[in-house]
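Follow-up to my post from last week.
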Amino acid sequence: MIKNTLQKIYLGLIFILLYAPIITLVVLSFNNSKTRAKWGGFTGKWYVALFQNEQIMNALYTTLIIALLSALIATLIGTAAAIGIQAMRKRVRTAMMAVTNIPMLNADIVTGISLMLLFIAFRFSLGFATILMAHITFNIPYVILSVMPKLKQTNRRTYEAALDLGASPIYAFFKVVFPDILPGVFSGFLLAFTMSLDDFVITHFTKGPGVDTLSTKIYSEVRKGIKPEMYALSTLLFVSVLILLILVNVSPSSKEGSTRKYVSKKSKAARFVFRRLVPAVMAIVIIAGGFFYGSKRSVSGDNQVIVYNWGEYLDPEVITIFEEETGISVVYEEYETNEIMYPKVQSGAIAYDVVCPSDYMIQRMIENDLLAEINFDHIPNIKNIGTQYMEQSRQFDAENKYSVPYCWGTVGILYNKKMVEEPIDSWSVLWDETYKDNILMQDSVRDAFAVALKYLGYSLNSTDLDELEAAKALLIEQKPLVQAYVIDQVRDKMIGNEAAIGVIYSGEAIYTQLENPDLEYVIPKEGSNVWIDSWVIPKNAKHKENAEAFINFLCRPDIAKMNFDYITYSTPNIEARKLIEDPAIRNSTIAFPDASELERCETFQFLGDENDVLYNELWREIKSK
Amino acid sequence: MKSKKLLAGPYLFWSVSFIIIPLLMIFYYGLTDQDGAFTFANLAKITTPENLKALGLALLLSLISTLICLVMAYPLAMILASMNVNQTSFIVLIFILPMWMNFLLRTLAWQTLLEKNGVINSILSFFHLPQLAIINTPYAIILGMVYNFLPFMVLPIYNVLVKIDKDVINAARDLGANNRQTFFKIILPLTVPGIISGITMVFVPALTTFVISDLLGGSKILLIGNVIEQEFKQGSNWHVGSGLSLVLMIFIILSMALIAKYDKDGEGTAF
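User reply:
Got it. Predicted complex:
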């Protein structure tokens, strides 16, 4: 009796461990506040918003169709393979099984990378098809390993008896062998489906532009904070599977109602559910999704523009308006850092039409001859961009030939007035022992080094080894005080009072202040980084005129204003600034700092490939200390 | 019988194209430099102090998580195996069910749970208990690994446990073995294939993860998976990345050898 209770308690604890995060996600899906750091009251609005969010619905559809197709194809190939392997001599069989084990045992990261290398070497353009092939590859072993044990249990004599009685091999197979291995085939299919659904790493390496599964969509949202619609979607998926399982298991006549432990006799109810209901539900979802997807894609064709932009760096509404006004369909893809974007453009595996890199990266792309000259005759709205920003752009684009400024800002310190005593005006606070574990540092090489170099009084474009070593030593000294290295998660963490001080981009600072009035932003007196992100057109762009139309559209004052409201990063569009309703924001010193403050700030420059490697190495030394 | 073998043909083609050739590509990239000349320099990169530390830490954390998983999973599998079949099938499915909630979201949810002002700490402070400060430390990473990979330890052990012939156990008891003896002399040795399979299925993904350390370690803690991911996605030096992947493959080959030795018939599969 005691043993029984103990067992129950133990099971209960394990279930709490397994399901605590899931309950958290379900709760978050009803959170009225957009950031996960704050509980803003109960709401069901995300469930409504979900079905209007085209990107998420597209990702869901891609995920489901890839899972279904890859599981189906893997089941076909895998089942046939299992039968074939079973018939082989023992030595060959062992070799085949060893190969089968490779994708199961190999690290996801290695499998993903190896497939990516293959696709790029053979000039497959990365996209839907490559993800599908990758998923089939890692799904087949699950099917083989599910079918093999069932095959071993089948009695070969019955098959031979069927042949003796005059059945053709195919007829005998489907009448005698197949019913016996069917449970294995089915559980293999279901496993493959689940694995494909849950995969992130392999998709991460094999996907192309404009194609996102839920996993990769979530990963790109991690830096900016997950959209609450995503929680709502996960909850819906989870609940529907749960209901399905309960239906199968609770039905009284089902004695062996499971997908995995089949015994030959299965109840009719379970059979009905698994053979008819599950496929029916899946089919409905896929077909409905297909219509949904098709209706969205019907306008497309060749008249498109492939945009590659920072995550959360454009109001989705703007794209809709652009598509309606011009009839050009937009394929939209996001990246998290300049360094992730660069190799993708450089490799030429994907022909982007318009990209939005930062200053120093534009310089690098120009130097490596990756950019096309923009035809400014097609961009009359360039007149709205302030001349000072065009002047500033000359630092990296000497003749203003390749880039059109989109957003700009500074890097500074965001601090919580309730948690910090004295007002902050210097980088030195990032080395203050009193704020141990309360500091959020930028997780990117140049930004982190800029802080240390500026604090030491050097240029943030330093290539002097002694200066860099000094900066490295300083950053290593700082590491024990740092709570976490983050990029855009600074935002959520500062809003949620998780830390007292964070290094942040000015655009994010404006948003955080709206959510949490205790926060204050400052550009330290030692100076900082002032940056510009600009639109450029890669040389291998296939739709250059559409790209120029897109850039021109974004320079329209009303559109630039929409984007400013959405992303809160400073706009170089003077006419757009005049349209901002709230005078506090229109004249905000965070969004539009005085020229005197900017004098102390520098723009990043591209320092050459060798110095890039040097910076990266020093940074890794810091991170692994 | 001949025609049956032909059924493996498509798979043979597929596995050569998408398993063997890609692996050879990694070898090619790992053993050449950017001009295509043969070199061992990429492999040697593993010996730099930073990379060695990342590898060492990854080994340590994944070993600890594997051990915790084993200790937690074995009793669990025994409890599951001792239940009647109908209930068990449901419970086993419960382990697969969380996978329908995205892996990244599940791991992110731990952030919300573990943060300084997170759910767990709010509950603890409500009861005036000391605060839990493990977010952004290696402990949080271990928790994330155990959480994500526990099912891969439970299922193989469970699968071999239910296959044990009850008569064998009864025979042992008839011959006078007590509970302890039955467990150590009969049950444990018979479940070795499942244990080995579980260990590799937890150890390898834990060793190579970069997502869990990223999300729960605050990017402060660099594991070998993070180093490789950065070489590909940020540093854009694919040759070094491939070289380091080759080093990782040593551990994977070791796992395969272990399985081949202890689990000849493939009984200990998770699924």
